[in-house]
Amino acid sequence: MKRIILTPAILLLAGMLFTFGQVTTGTVEYEEVIKFEIKLEGEMKAMMRDMPKERKANQVLYFNEESSLYTKSEITVEQDMTGFSGERRGRGMRMNAPHNIVYTDLEKQEIVEQREFMTRMFLINQEMPKSDWKITGQQKMILDYPCMEATKIDTAGVVTSVWFSPSIPVQGGPALFCNLPGLVLEVNVNDSSHVITAQSVTVEEPNQDILKKPREGKKVTQEEFEQIVKEKMEEMGIEGDMRGPGSGRGMHMIRIHQ
């Protein structure tokens, strides 16, 4: 006979599920903040002090027991890069979040990403990330939902911390942050360099027309997409890390060569 060992984390999960009613369908509005630093060289170097230090975007997650879809919210945030306006060469730049979509098939454990890069669309298919999270036992409330903390460290030493709610027993979450025994409501990557925070939860069945796999774009692997991005950035004289949503890195530093 197999023995079942009830660890403190499992007991906490069981307690939360027993105490609170379960939610399996709904919509979550998130605020996503990515911090970065832009390095300008040559004649443009004097403009660095006016460059933004972060990018904010409003995102939304639609979910049910079978699937979830994470995309740009109808509530949009636009950030002006004021260092390029007025007397500064008369240029203007507006920094908007790209229209990316992450569809997760929770039953088949598959993910389809629709990624926008330089006005082009790409489709990336992959398996759901492995559930290599470590539940810490830490707890807190987010939007009146009891949550637990889980963490992991990648091969580069980057620490990711997420807070998930067992009272929403869906393995989805924003971007690729998923595969936990509860919906992810908060993400903190690399000491707040990339933060995703739930702003509201609506408990209603999403329209089935919304929860569909994205189909627009050229089909590529993750490796092929990263190579396309790398080559285009080199062509433009830009250095930086522009990995996809949920990569655990965000955009930390972008260097533009004149």
Polypeptide structure, described:
The chain is globular. β8 (110-117) and β9 form a beta hairpin. It has a 12-stranded mixed β-sheet, with helices on one face. The longest helix is centred in the last third of the chain and has 14 residues, at 222-235. It has one domain: Lipoprotein localisation LolA/LolB/LppX (outer membrane lipoprotein receptor (LolB), chain A), CATH 2.50.20.10. With 258 residues, it is mostly beta strands. The protein has 2 helices and 17 strands.
Give a nutshell description of this structure:
With 258 residues, this protein is mainly β.
Topology:
Layout: H1 8-19, E1 26-35, E2 37-40, E3 54-63, E4 67-72, E5 79-80, E6 94-95, E7 101-105, E8 110-117, E9 120-127, E10 134-142, E11 145-153, E12 159-165, E13 183-189, E14 194-202, E15 218-220, H2 222-235, E16 238-240, E17 253-256
Parallel strand pairs: 2-17, 9-15
Antiparallel strand pairs: 1-3, 1-14, 3-4, 4-7, 5-6, 7-8, 8-9, 10-11, 11-12, 12-13, 13-14, 16-17
What characteristics describe this protein?
three-stranded mixed β-sheet, outer membrane lipoprotein receptor (LolB), chain A, 17 strands, 10% helix, twelve-stranded mixed β-sheet, 2 helices, 258 residues, single chain, disordered N terminus, disordered C terminus, globular, mainly beta
Coarse shape: globular
Walk across the major sheet and give the strand order.
Answer: 10-11-12-13-14-1-3-4-7-8-9-15
Show unreliable segments: 1-6, 77-94, 253-257
> What is the average of the pLDDT values?
79
Our count of domains comes out at 1
**CATH homologous superfamily - what is it?**
Lipoprotein localisation LolA/LolB/LppX
- What is the C-alpha radius of gyration, as a whole number of Å? 20 Å
Beta fraction: 35-45%
CA(first)-CA(last) distance? 69 Å
CATH class wording: Mainly Beta
* Element order: H for helix, E for strand: HEEEEEEEEEEEEEEEHEE
The CATH topology label is outer membrane lipoprotein receptor (LolB), chain A
Number of separate strands: 17
Helix content: 10-25%
- Alpha plus pi helix count: 2
Classification by helices and strands? mainly beta
